[in-house]
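REQUEST ID: PR-0412
SUBMITTED BY: lab tech R.K.
PRIORITY: routine
TASK: structure prediction, single protein chain
INPUT:
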Amino acid sequence: MTKSALLGLGLWLGISLSHVSGQNTPAPAADFTSGFQAVIHVGGQAPSGTLADRFGPSNTVGLGAYRVTESGWRWGVQYRFQTGAEVREEGLLDNLRNSSGYIIDNEGRIALVTAQQRGTMLAASAGRIVPAAFLSQGSGFLIEVQAGFWEHKVHFQNRGNRVTQLEDPYLKGYDRLTGGLVVLPRLGYVHDAPNGLVRFQCGVEGWLGRMQPNRVWNADTMTADTGPRADRAVGIFAAWILRLRARSTDIDYYH
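STATUS: complete
OUTPUT:
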């Protein structure tokens, strides 16, 4: 058989198979319930870039609100509060430590000071829920981008020992307050159970921050932070979704 005949046979088979596949494969359900949603968010992040030099892993909790259309487009806003237990910043509080490495409080006793990460993020989001034939109606794969303002700092937990340097206004020389713009590309899954009682989303996301230090001088290292900083993180997220509906009747019932 010649090469031309083989090519023709291959094209005929491809067209035939695609035609049969198009007849037998049901179209995905694209009808979403339009309206407003509230989400209760949790997540975890692993830092990279300059952020990994300052902090270890962190977690977030937050709230959000979305507007969903019948075709699956979604946009809204989200607020998150960020915490982390590990601080890696070199030279932190070195000027307050004695020769044995302890911090001494105002009364001359050893102060129990621990450093932690604190942060906030407020962002707008836009994306789409892509349906699939094997998923329940209202469920789909999430493609979304968030963009907004991100701020983080070092928080000092002082357990019953007063240290003047870690109080206002001197605290500004130690907390490494940093803020700036952040973009979060996200991929995930949105589930809407057929009975309408279970709705959640989960997935992965990246944090891409262009940050600027907000403190002029670090008192412990006797140096100034320089910027901009390329703070990065990779995270996972999950959220419980609450559908917000208007009242279906104007009649009030009293018991």
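NOTES: Strands lie at 35-49, 58-68, 73-84, 113-130, 140-158, 178-192, 199-213, 229-244.
REVIEWED BY: pending
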